[in-house]
Amino acid sequence: MHYLVKHMSDIFGNALLDYNSGNYTEDIKTYSSLDEEDTIPLPYLFRNFDDMPLLEQKALELTKGKVLDIGCGTGNHSLYLQQKEFKVTALDSSKGAIEVCKERGVKSTVHSPILDYDTSKFDTILLLMNGIGLAGKLINLDAFLNHLKSLLNPNGQILLDSSDIIYMFDQDDDGGYWIPNDGNYYGEVSFIMEYKQQKSQSFNWLYLDFNTLQNACLANNLQCDLVMSGEHYDYLAKLSVKE
After folding, report:
1. Number of structural domains, the chain?
2. Can you give the C-alpha Rg of the chain in angstroms?
């Protein structure tokens, strides 16, 4: 399961604050509607460029101009870009995450859900570590994409990675997948986080296969290009406003 890190729960922020202050005793546990228990290793959330997946490295290499890093977490991407002398704003809905970003030296931070933010416009918007998941459900995707589009400068770009989680469903002998027929898109997952015996409320997260993303972009006057595919059903996409 790809790491899922950018939820607005203080539980996430508390864990980051603990780790950053040298008080690392356990990782974050996650429970999902896919009947999976998993963990988010805190050290991984403090990685440097060399330890990032290739998709993230590629996104940072493609970054241009003024940058908005949505769901910035501990500020790994923002710090790397700052060192490259980019003007970057790190945004997260977790208060603890933003505090950690400041402690680590991120110069410009915003504590806000992305849908509440409309203060500035950018040349590059980053939605890394499956940041498109913040849309929550497929039905919200159009509004989410249009809000992002409203934050772009002319010729701006949105760089995002996501995963097609079809591989998590059982296959039949013909190679087809057994997907629950409950009317919901199979990439819609609900999660609960737990840290130090405190549990978050359940929240929705969206994993998008590339074709579904491409169709949503087409419907909202966005160009959607596949930049590269990862090793396990994941991909990096570049979105831009159609001329």
Report:
1. 1
2. 17
pTM: 0.92
Supply the CATH number for residue 217's domain: 3.40.50.150
The encoded tokens of residue 25 equal 């005793």
The residues near 35 (Cβ < 8 Å, ≥ 6 apart) are none
178 belongs to a structural domain: yes
Q: Which of 227, 5, 232 is nearest to 124 (CA)?
A: 227
When pLDDT is cut at 50, 70 and 90, the band that residue 6 belongs to is very low
Burial 40-53 (b: 16+ CB within 10 A, else e): bebeebbeebeebb
Place of tokens 């199979």: 186
Q: What is the rounded CA–CA span in Å between residue 55 and residue 231?
A: 10
Using DSSP's 3-state secondary structure scheme, residue 101 falls into helix
On the question of pLDDT at 137 being above 60, the answer is: yes
- Residue found by looking up tokens 């849309």 in the block: 135
pLDDT higher than threshold 90 for residue 112:
yes
Domain that holds residue 181: 10-241
**90: Cβ–Cβ under 8 A, 6 or more apart, which residues?**
69, 72, 75, 78, 98, 101, 106, 108, 109, 110
Give the 3-state DSSP-derived string for 196-234, with helices as H, strands as E and coil as C. Answer: CCEECCCEEEECCCHHHHHHHHHHCCEEEEEEEECCCCE
